[in-house]
Amino acid sequence: MKSFWNQCKEEIKKKLNKSHYEIWLEPTSIVSVGDKSITISVPNSYYIDRINKDYLSIIKEAVNSIAKKDVNIEFIVNINPLEPAVSSTDHEQGNSRGGDDIDRQIKTAPFTGLNPRYTFNNFIVGSCNQFAHAAAKAVVEGLTTYNPLFIYGGVGLGKTHLIQATGNIILNKYDNKRLLYVTSEVFVNDLITSLQHNGMKIFRDKYRSLDILFVDDIHFIAGKERSQEEFFHTFNTLFESHKQIILSSDKYPREIPKLEERLRSRFEWGLIADIQPPELETRIAILKQKAEEHRVTLPQDVAEFIANRVKSNIRELEGSLSRIIAVSSLKGKEISIHLAEDCFRDIFKTREKVISIGDIQKAVAEYFNIKVSDLKSKKRERNIAIPRQVAMYLCKELTNLSLEDIGKSFGGKDHSTVIHSQRKIERLFKENNEISIAVKLIRKTIEL
Ligand code: ADP
Ligand code: MG
Predict the structure, then answer these.
(1) Model confidence over 346-381: pLDDT tens digits?
(2) Which of 46, 104, 109, 200 has the largest CB neighbor count within 10 A?
(3) Domains in the chain, CATH or no CATH each
(4) 307 lines ligand 1 (CB under 6 A)
(5) Ligand 1 within 6 A of 77 CB?
(6) pTM of this prediction?
């Protein structure tokens, strides 16, 4: 049975934009349920302001409809990560087993800010992120040997995933480590509200009593004087007491504009590892693993189709996969290369390199070691006819040109010849492995 708060969250989730839900509602948990009121714990006071301002009515509506009465909602800040909020499921178990269990659960489930969905198991390693992955593992093995660990790389390349996975594994491996993951935006907002509400002592106790502090997207504090100052002292306190600091950023420390020099140099004290855009094989592996997570079968050619077009951002890669999954289920069609072409036609067209018939003819002629003029000739020998059919097939696949236009560019053939070629090659794919390899390789050189 789902706990009360989980049910409420499900309701709320339906009404909110996904990212708003994930930021503002996901990290909340229930602390107590009274007759007329419930108490919800949130990560910091900034959440209280924000929830009251933007989400209270949606929350109230959900709570009242599930409780079937008017319930008052109170929020408390989970001030000290050592004094955790009870997660909703813990609370439910506690209820069924009695109050002592609640206390026990409270002690064993501190608020960490970590999302258990990020693990090392579902992090695909390729040459693009091998070093960062190894560095993170080394930090897990020998806490504070490498301090700080600084992971940098472009947007959507897996920084958050990697450092969260590191946190999750540390939680599993070590008992009683006080660990907190925040984005630097949360750090800054936490600082602002603490300053406004005379809460600096609590703020400092919270951050400086940790064994491991993760700050994601640390570049965000650059140019913010007070935040940099406070982070500098937090860093020093933790570092001097041999506590681990793990940071991520979109740039190498020296390249972060407006970052204070004293912070920059500290960021370079430990181990710095970069994450680069993934190479094709890694992109395919990621797509396949995400498809598995969604429990859908992703044919190899569709994985390649997407991976060949989305090159620099794993988040976009995931977005493309979600799109084809959605389209497939809406249309009730299996995921196939045809569905993929249909589904991404407009999206990929704009950013794809424009491929001309000339490019294709050149690549095909080169591969089969014949002349482009042979492709346009009327020669019927197999060593010319097959390459010509391959070239026509590729023109249909890779350009938006009409059958007529394609035919014309092959020495004035008509559209039925192009259709015939297309069918022939598709048939050969099934019978003749050599042709399908040839087409794949040629396609790669053209799309490069
Ligand atoms: P960043 O923090 O660098 O902007 P994220 O960590 O948020 O990027 O990654 C974006 C998405 O891509 C996430 O959903 C993440 O799970 C996924 N992702 C990134 N790298 C990998 C990887 N190596 N293996 C599997 N999934 C990955
Ligand atoms: Mg991130």
Answers:
(1) 777 544 567 889 999 999 999 999 999 999 999 999
(2) 46
(3) 2-104 (3.30.300.180), 130-275 (3.40.50.300), 280-352 (1.10.8.60), 357-447 (1.10.1750.10)
(4) no
(5) no
(6) 0.61
